[in-house]
Amino acid sequence: MSCQKSPSPLSLQPPAQVRRRLLLGGSLVTLLAAFFLFHPPEPLRLLDLQIYDLLLAQSPPKAAGQLPVVVGIDEASLAEFGQWPWPRYRLAQLVLALQRQGVAAIGLDILLPEADRGSPEVLFAERQRDLGEKFPNQGWLAQVRSNDAMLAETLAAAPVVLACQFLYNSQAVAADKDLLHPLEKMIVAREVDAAPGWPEPRGVLAPLESLQAATAAIGFTNARPDPDGALRRLPLLLTYRQEYYPSLALATLMLATGEWELSLELLDQEARLSWFDRQLPLDARGQLLLGFSSQPRHRYVSAADLLLGRLPENALLGATVFVGAWSTGQGDRHLTPLAQEVPGVALHALAAATILHADWYHHPAWARGMELLAVVCLGLGSTFLLSRSGLLSALLLSIGGVLLIGWGSLLLLEKMNLFVAPTLPVLVLLCNGAFLGLLRLCIEANGVRQRSIQSVRS
Questions:
Q1: Last residue of one domain, picked from the residues 357, 372, 398
Q2: Is 84 contained in some domain?
Q3: According to the model, what pLDDT value does residue 229 have?
Q4: Do residue 77 and residue 46 come from a single domain?
Q5: Distance between CA 146 and CA 151 in Å, rounded?
């Protein structure tokens, strides 16, 4: 008498009644995933960002080429020249040293909204006010140039972009827009109402008026981190009092190249900024997704080496330079998607390198359509497989689909700098595999139990 081995329950096809329930359950899971694609809860948004960071970390390093230079006011500089903030005459010396090196433009990532409190005339006035001290012989003060006057004189002869900070709180004090160097050669190709989703500042923390009048341009340093605290984007343009203003990175590049013409096309969900021979894709808030890389996107020079004349002659010839705080104690540090904390001046240099090399990342509006198509196709496809084939083969195909989606997203990011989020397509496959597999086992177990009960009764 021969004995045949019964097939594994994991390889059996479900009966018709079970198939109908599985199809209904899988369709509901797919519909819910499609809804979350356009109305994501906070945990899903954070997961999306983490997956983007994971793909970014797997991408190869960006090409080096010609990189911006960062002149950092670091621990060695503070040890050599004293604590921060430095007197403005020392900033003037720093600018003069860069000018002698023959740099193309200097972005000064330092806010200078008030008079230099270390200047002799300010110092004496404060001592008179606070301590009641009298200084009988003050005629020499009239012969000493103030620190701000020395810096203004230097700025007038150098290619420098000063920094400003737009403010959004209700106590912000509005500034005279005529002193802020708005973009005059700005062409808006198409505008939907105002810039859709662009924040409108209430005021601005601008440089001292004498410094504004002397400098070639001004750029803002605003940055908005994502919900998880990491900074992945920087705005390139902001509107203030119906005028457009460039970021520090963009203004410095424009000054370095002499290309001041911009064309902006505002769409429903994104914007396109044309500058020079580049088409820069901006999101709905006017931000550029930066081209982060595992390798530095700038050359670094210590401010101490520059001021002490340790650099070879013409070592920075033709370079686009950003000057700013580098030591940890000066603050202005930001978390990046590569799990690093970097100074703000490095991010401005990164934005400039991204524009120069045209290697930005982009999550276009049409990517949502691709993600929706993937969610629907994979959700319904996995539902059909789980309802028609054996459980084991369906689960193996779902796992293969997850790996394929991840590989495709990484390939798009590496080869085309496009980010198409794999989060929900992967989740719909995993949820269908887990939920429908469990549902199928429960239904089949219940069927077996019912048949056993009927067999006992008969």
A1: 357
A2: yes
A3: 92
A4: no
A5: 9
Asked if 221 and 327 sit in the same domain, the reply is yes
What pLDDT does 12 receive?
45
The domain boundary, picked from 306, 340, 357, lies at 357
The β-bridge partners of 395 are: none
Q: Which two tokens stand for residue 193?
A: 């109402």
The upper half-sphere exposure of residue 122, i.e. CA atoms within 13 Å in the direction of its Cβ, equals: 13
Is the C-alpha dihedral spanning 53, 409, 354, 217 positive or negative?
Answer: negative
Q: Is 427 helix (H, G, I), strand (E, B) or coil?
A: helix
**What per-residue confidence (pLDDT) applies to 44?**
92
User: How far lies 354's CA from each of 126, 247, 295, 361, in Å?
Assistant: 45, 14, 13, 9
Same domain for 95 and 203? yes
351 and 368 together in one domain: no
C-alpha to C-alpha distance for 84 and 75, rounded to whole angstroms: 10
CA atoms within 13 A on the CB side of 144: 13
* Domain boundaries, position 433: 11-59+364-448
Residues 155 and 170 reside in one and the same domain: yes
Question: How confident is the model at residue 196, as a pLDDT?
Answer: 47
pLDDT at 7: 47
Residue 270, classed as helix, strand or coil, is coil
Residues with pLDDT less than 70, the chain? 1-19, 121, 124, 127-128, 135-143, 170-179, 185-197, 389-394, 436-451, 456-458
Asked if 150 contacts 89 with a C-beta cutoff of 8 angstroms, the reply is: yes
Q: Does residue 3 lie in a domain region? A: no
151's tokens = 């810096």
User: How many degrees, rounded to 5, is the angle at CA 228 between CA 226 and CA 234?
Assistant: 25
Which pTM value belongs to this model? 0.86
